[in-house]
Design a protein that fits this description.
Length: 304
């Protein structure tokens, strides 16, 4: 099957679920968990690599179940893996089963199981399939992951202009699904044949932060499918503007959100409502403001 056919097949099933009340975003989230479990098992089986997933929660333990036993096993798997450190904990952080109907869950599990081995697919192909799903999701829904998706041509142009070099560290403090980090990786990986430099590029040169849990998960999985960050997660969940992280980077590539820091309403004892603006108080910021663009600019100046 070609990439496009595989994306179409995985996506067509999203339509079936959509008619039954499951959103595209939820579907991609579940595909993320299941794909990860399947590929982890394939890496152990075909490549002889150690698995970081305990045997009672791996793909083999899941796929042998049917009906309500499958739903129960899947739910427990998500709960257990959310507590693991590193990349696995990042991908499964706050995970929940949205495919609570055992028949639907079985269909998705069978779909992923029958298309294997996924690990045999070229790294870029797997990444492209997943990116294809993210891109379709972004165009289908203006809310959800759509707002975290910078169009590919914009990212390509910015990375080309900035021209990060292998050996440099790259950060995106508003990383979304990881478009800038992956494009930087693609741009840098052909600059050297040195295995040590390439290993450092895959496992230590790229860093991302995003405030939304679901998006951090999509980003971590997207990077993993492109062969970036095998043990430790290159992306963390948090408000990049909340504090000075202490770490410094050679290159920052980002398209941060615009607007104001959210304001919140306070109801007084007499029932009157006042609005209070939240601002970031940081010693390294020259200006204290609720303006997000200016705060991100100040943050970028700090971390460079």
């Amino acid at each position: 099957m070609s990439n496009d056919q595989l994306v179409a097949k995985v996506w067509n099933y999203a339509h079936v679920l959509r008619d039954q009340g499951i959103s595209y975003g939820d579907y991609i989230e579940q595909i993320t968990y299941l794909l990860f479990l399947k590929m982890d098992q394939e890496r152990t089986e075909y490549l002889g690599e150690d698995s970081a997933i305990p045997p009672e929660w791996n793909w083999s333990a899941l796929v042998k179940h049917d009906g309500e036993a499958l739903e129960r096993q899947y739910r427990r798997t998500l709960q257990a893996l959310a507590k693991v450190d590193g990349l696995i904990g990042t991908i499964f952080r706050k995970s929940q089963n949205k495919l609570s109907d055992p028949a639907k869950l079985k269909r998705v599990v069978s779909l992923i199981d029958s298309e294997g081995p996924w690990i045999g697919l070229d790294v870029d192909v797997k990444g492209e399939i997943y990116e294809g799903l993210l891109e379709r999701n972004a165009s289908e829904v203006r809310s959800g992951a759509g707002q975290y998706f910078t169009p590919r041509p914009v990212i390509d142009a910015i990375v080309k202009c900035v021209d990060p070099r292998i050996g440099e560290t790259v950060c995106d403090p508003a990383c979304g699904t990881g478009g800038f980090l992956l494009t930087a990786f693609e741009h840098m990986k052909d600059q050297s044949q040195d295995r040590d430099k390439l290993r450092k590029l895959r496992h230590g040169a790229l860093h991302g932060v995003d405030i939304v849990d679901e998006v951090v998960r999509l980003c971590a999985m997207n990077l993993y499918l492109h062969g970036v960050g095998n043990g430790e997660s290159p992306v963390t969940q948090g408000d990049a503007l909340a504090s000075n992280p202490g770490t410094r980077y050679k290159v920052v590539l980002t398209n941060p959100p615009f607007g104001k820091k959210s304001s919140y309403q306070v109801v007084g004892e007499d029932g009157s409502v006042t609005t209070e603006r939240e601002t970031y108080e940081r010693d390294d910021f020259k200006f204290t403001t609720s303006n997000k663009q200016l705060n991100f600019l100040q943050h970028i100046m700090t971390i460079l």
